[in-house]
Amino acid sequence: MASTLGSVGEVRIKPERLHTFAMAICRADGSSEEEARLVADHLVLANLFGHDSHGVGMIPHYIQNTESGACVRNHHAKMARDNGAVIVVDGGAGYGQVVAKEAMDIGIERARQHGVCVLGLINAHHIGRIGHWGEQCARAGMVSTHWVNVHGHKSMVAPFGGAEPRFTTNPYCTTIPRNGKEPIVLDFATSQVAMGKVRVAQNKKVPMEDGLLIDAAGRPTTDPGVMYNAPYGALLPFGLHKGGGLAVICDLLAGALTGGRTHSPRTIKKTGTDIINNMLSVIIDPAAMGGSALFEEEVETFITWVKSAKPQDGVPEVLAPGEPERARRADREKNGIPIDTTTWQQLLDVAAKVRLNDTDIPHMA
Ligand code: NAD
To answer: Which DSSP symbol is given to 273?
Structure first.
């Protein structure tokens, strides 16, 4: 078998085996072949890039949501408003990996026609790693920026200066295509860390770093359990008032401007596990601005200049956004994807729940 034991409390599994397993779970749960493939592609790529928070560890949550109806299997994106270069696409709580791809396909086509597309994707089930959507635009030669909010889910992130949560991890992403090279991908949660990283720490039973979490009284803590056991604490926003401000802007652009709705008592389901993402994407064709040749040359000139900075002590190299993920991918493709044993057990449990044929389950060597 492809999987082997890694360090204590960890399974290492080859990406292709993990992909087959992830796909098989979704298929057994009732997703079409294509849907299962899109979900597995997305989650395994997130693992390969080192974002385990948005990898296959999400599957138990997804299956819980298909069962409750909070995620609708085999659903496709629908145009809700069509103003040419300004469009709103409704995900209908379908799998985010399906409806966001379909929305980006439309947005890219519109940006080709008009030079730009301002796209609101509303009411999508979890759309995962936002860089995935920026990369889809970059493959088509488009620059794109994405602001995302989350509702359905309970609040998890405190506003700057707040001692209790008011929104969630509201990610932001900008992706810049490059000629013959991998794109620049800046993609992050506006909380100090993505919530999935707290889940990974909780599953591994390890404390988190200082400065990421507060407890229910608003005091600093390193215990990931404050996000799982009442009375609940909160994640802090990144970058003090600047990151806290960007988190607020994400909710306003993705939730209010698009009509997808902000995170508020009207949309929070306190006991639910729903994760609905709304996203405002601005997709720009560089050819409609300074022209592709000038743009491509300036990108290379600037990135080369930035990377030429002498690194600080202890830093091997100045990296461009997107490079750390690609380095991790090279390592994980070679050495396998590490999965903590708690997450692995959750995957085995969900495989049993959907009655996956035993031959589809990778077993430990
Ligand atoms: P992170 O803190 O790891 O930051 C990642 C970004 O920083 C990447 O663009 C990366 O290339 C860049 N980066 C990291 N180290 C760098 C270095 N040394 N030099 C240059 N650039 C560097 O990311 P995160 O906040 O943990 O977010 C993880 C993922 O979670 C993202 O893909 C995000 O989209 C996703 N997310 C999704 C949701 C959702 O609701 N769907 C919510 C939150 C986060």
So the answer is: -
- Mean per-residue pLDDT over the chain, rounded: 94
What's the CA-to-centroid distance between 319 and ligand 1, angstroms? Answer: 14
Determine contact, residues 108/141, Cβ cutoff 8 Å: no
CA separation, residue 253 to residues 86, 242, 268, 273 (Å)? 14, 16, 18, 23
Q: Whose CA is nearest to atom 24 of ligand 1?
A: 188
C-alpha 136 to ligand 1 mean position (Å): 17
CATH of 8-68+324-365, one of 3.30.70.120, 3.90.550.10, 3.30.310.50, 1.10.1530.10: 1.10.1530.10
- Domain range summary for the chain, segments of one domain joined by +: 8-68+324-365, 75-191+237-308
Mind listing the pLDDT tens digit for each residue in 247-305?
Answer: 999 999 999 999 999 999 999 886 668 899 999 999 999 999 977 899 999 999 999 99
Q: Which residues line ligand 1 (CB under 6 A)?
A: 51, 53-54, 126-131, 148, 150, 169, 171, 173, 185-189, 193-194, 197, 277, 319, 321-322, 324-325
- Whether the bond between 183 and the residue before it is cis, its omega within 30 degrees of 0, is no
Q: How confident is the model at residue 364 (pLDDT cuts 50, 70, 90)?
A: low
- Residue 116 Cα to ligand 1 midpoint, Å, equals 25
Alpha helices by DSSP H, listed for 140-291, are 195-204, 240-251
CATH of domain 75-191+237-308: 3.30.1370.60
Nearest CA owner, ligand 1 atom 21: 321
